[in-house]
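Predict the assembly for these two chains.
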Amino acid sequence: MIEIKDITKTYGEGEAAFQALKGVSFTIEDGEFVAIMGPSGSGKSTLMHILGCLDTPTTGKYFLDGKDISTLSDEELADIRRLHVGFVFQAFNLLPRTSVLRNVMLPLIYAGVDGEERVARSEKALVATGMPESHFTHMSNQLSGGQIQRVAIARALVNDPSLILADEPTGNLDTKTGEVVLGTFQKLNREHGRTIILITHEHDVAEHAERIIQLRDGLVVSDSKQHARRHVKHAV
Amino acid sequence: MKLNDIAHETYAALSANKVRSGLTILGIVIGISSVIAMVSIGTGASNTISSSIESLGSNLIQVTPGAQRTQGFGASGGRGGAKTLTNEDADAIATQIADIEAVDAQVSGRYQVTAKGTNTNTSVTGVTSSYPQIRNVEVEEGSFISDTQNSSASKVAVLGPTTRDDLFGEGATGIVGQAVRINGMEFKVIGITVGKGGTGFQNQDDIIFIPARSAQRYLSGDQYLTTIAVQASTPEAMTQVQADVTALLLDRHHISDVALADFSVLNQNDILSTASSITSTLTYLLAAIGGISLLVGGIGIMNMMLTTVTERTREIGLRKAIGAKKSDIRAQFLAEAIALTVIGGIIGIALGWLISFAVNLTGLVTTSVSLSSVLLAFGVSAITGIVFGYYPARRAAELNPIEALRYE
């Protein structure tokens, strides 16, 4: 469960100070599929960094699974990221010249998981995203855009995190491939009960989620639950 | 992060840019191999010099004449050129000084020598029967000069192998009993010595030995000696013998001030230590030249690692987002730098060994690669990797993940 209370984030000091978040509060229950929307400059990237434990808020509290993480050090944040957060980025997601399986293993390598367990968990995560087994040994630079994002999703899943954070995951993909990737998220959410937070500026993308939080100028302007209006059929 | 995973990542990273990794390794190879080769050449040269000094004889103290001094403000003669040592000085040393094994009075000069139509110009040394013992000379054929031959000033000669080759042809046998003419006078050959090999500056085998008294009577025409060689009974006694000889000769020559002595007493250990201090300075100098090229190689590593860190900024950001700690990132980049130097170190040691072997083949110096120099070179290469890899690795570890992910 994610609980944020009155979070602010200020960059710079004195007259040059810029407040990216001006007091944001919400709660996301386990198993939710949330889209955080907003135009550029609305503070959604800053919010994603804080939710993903890459950064800490200037003021306010952030509880992840009941643990207050708003005051942790860099090294403690690294531990939280490794154990509780899975990231899917817009671009440059995989290590070049590295096999699909090895890419997925990366969080487990840093967590010190070794041997057969590491391979088994990585393969399971890849299967969950619908990656065909014949591709497991392919090099990352031999993959299509959609396949790259699936490998990235598998990597985000492999540590069994509390939440998966996807930052514009379809931004570099054509509409059709984007749909497949979003379908993968829906499947993981519905069938595996994963908590997913999708950061996007596109309505079409946000409509795949079941709750949309809209940001503008560092404040929440709307927070609405819905039945996902768009369902990707035959996902995977 | 486990060791085998670090090894895997390091291999992947270094093999991704083989040319760049290869050139960086080459820098270290040149550095390490030059250290090894230079040190081995230096050590070899110093061994050659020490062994040739030791081949002169053991526990040896040499007395040579000093500069001839005239009364008042007269010109000083060259050192060693004076005629101040006599047979009586040699006898006095032999009878009055303790802890000595043998004394040899020598008179040397260069003369024209002929035999059966061939001729050569060589060093003719008048010696006594103790010469072989003091100077480690062995007789291959015939016999050496005896005390009787010396006191009766017999016209007998013992030839060095090179002189024998020059006068009678390479490897000639049956020379004993034949005659050679030294400065026009006929001497009977009674023996041939075993070769000692060259010392680099002079050939110890190009020599003719005759009795010292004969040399004084027939060649130099006076009563003076050019060298008195004294062999101490033990290495420990050398300093005492040297002092005693000095005191005795000062007394005999009626000189009260040591600084005005008309002779000099050289201890073989002094020569050896002077020579070894020269050669060890030479070795340090050579090692320093090698060390500089190693430093340049190390800077090459740092340069490559800094470029790599910049190029892989987004990868570092991604790794951090996934949960890599600073120590994980630091270990990864440090491992790459150390791998480069260790690979370079191993190739460098092999190449250095090869260079030292090749120098050996030329026959100029007998080089020797010591285990300590190999260990030193290897240790230095590992330290180079750590020192020059640490800064780039730390820079990578300290990157802010958000900025690193945004890096274009």
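Chain B has 13 helices and twelve strands. Chain B touches chain A through 20 residues (CB under 8 Å).
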